[in-house]
Write a structure and sequence with these properties.
Blueprint lengths: L20 H23 L2 H10 L4 H11 L7 E6 L9 E7 L3 E6 L6 E4 L2
Antiparallel strand pairs: 1-2, 2-3, 3-4
Length: 120
């Protein structure tokens, strides 16, 4: 990091008095990123999880099966995953995962362990 020069401390309508230009630009960048995150979060739903699965080259059923396996639940050969639109909410997805050995309802908050209920 370089030390700011005297010219960097000019006052202006876009900078608080005495704040270096780089600080103001960083604050504007941070504000822009936060606005995008908030707006992106407002429209996110199960579509986000599906997008992540596609980007990783996996299917949703494979990702859900891997998640519940990591929690110690047996899921032999995942067959299909269906998002439950009635129970899902923003930042809370509910899926029904049919595996060869059982069917599970998986409730997920981002970055947390899933709540898994065996249906059959």
């Amino acid at each position: 990091m370089t030390m700011p020069s005297a010219g960097d401390f000019e006052r202006g309508p876009d900078r608080p008095s005495g704040a270096p230009r780089s600080v103001c630009n960083d604050q504007a960048s941070i504000s822009s990123v936060l606005a995008l995150l908030v707006l992106g979060g407002a429209v996110s739903s199960g579509d986000h999880f599906q997008s992540v699965a596609k980007a990783a080259g996996e299917t949703v059923k494979d990702m859900l099966a891997a998640q519940i396996r990591s929690q110690g639940i047996v899921c032999g050969k995942p067959q299909r995953a269906t998002r439950d639109a009635k129970l899902s909410k923003p930042d809370y997805d509910v899926w029904v995962l049919k595996c060869e050995n059982a069917t599970y309802r998986i409730s997920r908050y981002p970055d947390m362990a899933a709540k898994v209920e065996q249906l059959r």
